[in-house]
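Sample intake — Biosynthetic peptidoglycan transglycosylase
Collected from: Mucilaginibacter panaciglaebae
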Amino acid sequence: MISDIRNKNNNLGTMKGLGKLIWRFVKLFLILFISITVLWVITYRFIDPPVTWLMITRGFERKADGKDWKIDKEWRDFDDIADGMKRAAVAAEDQTFLENHGFDFHAIEKAIEKNSRSKKLIGGSTISQQTAKNVFLWPGRSWVRKGFEAYFTLLIEVFWSKRRIMEVYLNVIEMGDGIYGAQAAAQAYFHKDAFDLTRAQSAAIISILPSPLKWSPTHPSDFVRHRQYLIMKNMRRLGPLDF
């Protein structure tokens, strides 16, 4: 009887010791994860992201299809991108960009409502969220990825300015097959520098962002042409964009 009690006490002691050890590993992991990710985000406040997981993934997809490897991108600083591109992005993707803190809760509510009726996960992403997932995360759609997206969105909202978020967004976003950023898109579609894009050309490029591998700003379908019209209409309605 006494030995049974001792065995039970020993087992309880072992379980408690194991629990403490696991908790120490969890705390260590969380400290390392937060430290590394915060440092990563702060670094990209000053250093331009050289490549994204999406770019690499698309490159391998092209190779698998028998095409040449292609990551066409050329960084342009904020002031070297046409104002029309910035206005078009805000008008089409996130009209509360300068006022929100990375999340548009009205859009999120609409997305949750749609997701309840659909097997496909639909996002309600702001420009900050799109920047976070493009720069720091892998391609795909899942609730786990949305969780990491929210975490990195909070970090860039804390450590970056809205100006920096827009600058990074317009340099890394996919704008065609192997085409990333405003400069590469401007050259590929209109044979000019990103600074020289007109408002109509900017709206045309932004109009294809929901499906840049399917749509074209220079050979638009009726749907894309109508989307460009709506973007330009919203651009005129926007007040001053104070970055």
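Post-analysis note: The two ends are 76 Å apart (CA to CA).
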